[in-house]
Amino acid sequence: MRLEVIRKRADFVAANHGVRVARPGFVLLVKPGVRAPAQARFGVTVTRKIGNAVFRNRMKRRFRALLREILPTRGLAGADHVLIGREGGVERDFTLLRQELEQALARAVAGKGDPPRRPRDRGKKPGSHNSGGPKSGGQKSGDAR
């Protein structure tokens, strides 16, 4: 199987609609059927909440090495694979990460992903616009009556 790298944000977002398998060090997203059967793509992403650039890049290097080693034999042919780094992923033992990735890929190939995440509420909560905070026109600290 020929491996390519996912580079466009839209492809990362599209992978989020596939199978999701969470492990302690990472989350694996697999979107089947988007490529020719003889090729597969992979991408790695780590959010800034995890750490500084040096830390994130070290984590991405480890994940890329794992993916290049394991995907040709255990990956889903014709699919996009995305690894999202989680906190603690860089400190995990490399052989443990390898085992977890193999287990996650086996679950994804079998179609046994984790249940979908709940959609985040992007709006404000009802009634939170006037909570009596310091700028809501409430009583100021010097106005004791």
Report on this model:
By secondary structure, the protein is of the alpha/beta class. The protein is built from three helices and five strands; from the N terminus they run E-H-E-E-E-H-E-H. The protein has helices at residues 9-15, 53-74, 94-109; strands at 2-5, 19-22, 26-31, 39-45, 80-85. The protein has a five-stranded mixed β-sheet, sandwiched between helices. Helix 2 links the parallel strand 4 (39-45) and strand 5. Helix 2 packs across helix 3. The radius of gyration is 21 Å and the shape is globular. The termini are far apart. The mean pLDDT is 82.
Can you describe this structure in just a few lines?
This protein has 145 residues and is α/β, with parallel strands linked by helices.
Largest sheet: 5 strands, mixed
**Which structural category fits the helices and strands?**
alpha/beta
Number of strands: 5
- The percentage of residues in β strands lies in 15-25%
Q: What's the pLDDT, averaged over the residues?
A: 82
Instruction: From the alpha carbons, calculate the radius of gyration and give it in angstroms.
Output: 21 Å
Low-confidence stretches: none
Shape: globular
**Could you spell the SSE succession in H and E letters?**
EHEEEHEH
Give me the number of helical elements: 3
Q: Helix proportion of residues, in percent?
A: 25-40%
Largest sheet, order of strands side by side? 1-4-5-3-2
